[in-house]
Description:
Elements: H1 6-52, H2 60-91, H3 100-109, H4 111-129, E1 138-143, E2 150-157, E3 161-165, E4 171-175, E5 179-184, E6 189-199, H5 204-220, H6 222-225, E7 233-240, E8 244-253, H7 258-275, E9 289-292
Antiparallel strand pairs: 1-2, 1-5, 2-3, 3-4, 6-8, 6-9, 7-8
Helix pairs in contact: 1-2, 5-7
Amino acid sequence: MTFLRPGQNLLNWLQNPGLSVLMTVLGALILARLVSWGGNKVTDQIDANYQLGDALVRSEATKHRHSVAQVITWVIITFIYVIATLKVLDLLSLPIGSLVAPATVLGAALGFGAQRVVQDILAGFFIITERQYGFGDTVRLAITGSSDDAEGVIEDVTLRVTRMRNADGEVITVPNGQIVKATNLSKDWARAVIDVPVPATADLTRVNEVLRQVGVDAMSDRGLKKLLLDEPTVMGIESLEVDQVSIRMVARTLPGKQFQVGRALRVRVAAALRRQGITVTPGLHTGNIEEASE
């Protein structure tokens, strides 16, 4: 009867299944890295085409291609790891059939969690296919169980989560299944809405004339004209109070540029009214920011 030393047993194991397991794991890691590198090259090329072009904002097709490339990369990497896991189990002589019963018990125990994951993946699938939003979009998300909406610029969309960065530079990760409402602030075109509060004793006809002239001057400005889709218009009186009147001015802009245009117009409105001796009350603000599809 031959007895093998522990070192020989370990050596024999390494020469047979151990080496194969090690090579499978390393191969999966290397292949996943290559897929990730390839996905990054594709998204970088999409970004480079946008940056080298003369477009001020990303087109909907560009944002959709970027998101699809991210999702495909994530799916392929997940598939590689699943195949590698099954291969390792086979090399370790653990037949998949014998794991059916334990997997059933484990699946029942983790059923609630699995439902949440499936919900996230299905929601992510519809987000991508319906083009609700994509990379580079400015969105506002209403999240289940949260009283505050998450708002920011989309940096990554996978089948399971949406990752965005808010104005403070914080990265927010939201499971897709917990999104109950998505407001896209940068789809096709946007509208900056400015409510101008003036004293009730002011000459409203003169105020309207000043605001219309602000819109004409804005279209004459080279910096603002490329952000505007048409000339800002004065909608008229929005609200009437005892001591002040609010007059609404709107401007249709390129997607995602409504905030920049709104800030520039507020400065112009305040300066123009001040030159006419009309006092602007402290309530001057951007009002509601709206967006719509063409």
